[in-house]
Amino acid sequence: MNQPQQFRKVYVEVQLTVSPEGDVRPNTIKFEDGTVYAIDRLRHRCRAHATKVGGTGVRYTVVIRGQETYLFEDDGKWFVEARGNVGC
Amino acid sequence: MDRTILHCDMNNFYASVECMLNPKLKGHPVAVGGDVENRHGIILAKNYEAKKFGIQTGEALWQAKQKCRNLIIVPPHYEEYLKYSRLAHSIYEDYTDLIEPYGMDEVWLDITGSTKLFGNGEKVANELRERIKFELGLTISVGVSFCKVFAKLGSDLKKPDAVTVIPKDSFREVIWNLPASDLLGVGRSTDKFLSSHGIHTIGELANAYPDLIQRKLGKNGMMLLAFANGKDRSRVAPQDYEPPMKSVGHGITTVQDLENNAEVWNIILALTQDIGHKLRVYNKNAAGVAIYIRYIQDKQLGGKQWQCQLPVRTHSAAIIAREAYQLFERSYRWEFPIRSVTVRAINLCSQDLPEQLQFFSDAAAVERKEKLETVIEEIRGRFGKYAIQPACLCQDIKMPTDREVELRMPTGMIG
After folding, report:
1. Among B12, B28, B210, B359, which has the highest number of CB atoms less than 10 A from its own CB?
2. Does B82 contact A at CB distance below 8 Å?
3. Stretch B19-31: mean pLDDT
4. Which is nearest to B246 in space by CA: B273, B282, B277, B272?
5. Any CB–CB contact under 8 A between B133 and chain A?
6. pLDDT level of residue B370 (50, 70, 90 thresholds)
7. Predicted ipTM of the assembly
């Protein structure tokens, strides 16, 4: 039987560009294992609930290596919904 | 002109926030329970799965566990509840500035002025419901009506995640058959009185003899009669409205029952330290003091309350403590050990208000005490709350550990 996919909240280091108008654009994400992922595109930004791992924040819909994913900012901390149960 | 009032109620707020923050809890019976060690071991909130087992808010944790062995009890996280309450408020702010909170999880909105911009009450209610679900992962029930009381009633009718409209032209058909106890302001004793006079529904209350209601329930009874007839005219307070402060109080449940006067004195003295500080911060003097004592009588929580006037208006913690203790000493008969003590400074007025001195009261002594406490306050301001305190409070006085988050209790502008 297929187990439902597990997700966990992983706080990440993010490199940002802040425009003079105050607009924030994330450029790269440094994952917990040290891998740095460049954000190719920023598609959308809105406040949303993180349905897979719980909590809420400003949700950035980003494209990384052709895959669409979400990056959340909550009270100045950034997190992603990572697959797998390790270290939970 | 008819108003459009919304009442938004966040469903099972504490439990919903816990389940939203930890999705693994979803689908399981979950309750938020108080701290057992500090004897707050009761159910504070529960989700719908726990409700199916008959678990009730306010019952002891062990009783709840007996009803549902798999019940997951999580400790409360007040900072998170405050955060999500604030976030919900920021969503409401997109529609109106007339936002009146009723506790942390309930709110009235008057959107009369913005219906041309956002659509009618039902449309806005549905939009709010959807937005709070999408943005915060929480559900709300919304009541839409032309007055606050019916809006509140509406939000209680359908739960969770629902909108109920009570229109002005047909409210009688919608609500007159509901039990009178559903109406805001009808508590347990009022309901008992109404039932004993054959008044069981809101419709029966609406058509009751005003003379009878006036005679037996006074001004509040007449207010309920007006509510039942849809004549509630109370405003929704503007967002920045601060209700006038009527009292400053502090109460605790002790870690063990108190058994003699000396123990009660220690608790009263500890409680009044905070009261004195708050009176200073708010620039208020108290003209009276009230105490509320709770005890266990036949396995039920009982309580008694007394109050008295102070000879001279003051914000001195020591004087308020002494008066509260003397009031306790002459009022309490020690039939049962004491479980919780609350002290309140009442009849507040500004410290700048002149006062007519009495011939037999020693205003100079009060002033001396206040000056001494000003110095104590300064020391505490510089070196911390516990840098200086009465010697008798340095021992174990059965006080629970401090609660970090200050909670504001519901305020209402009904009536």
Report:
1. B12
2. no
3. 93
4. B282
5. yes
6. very high
7. 0.89
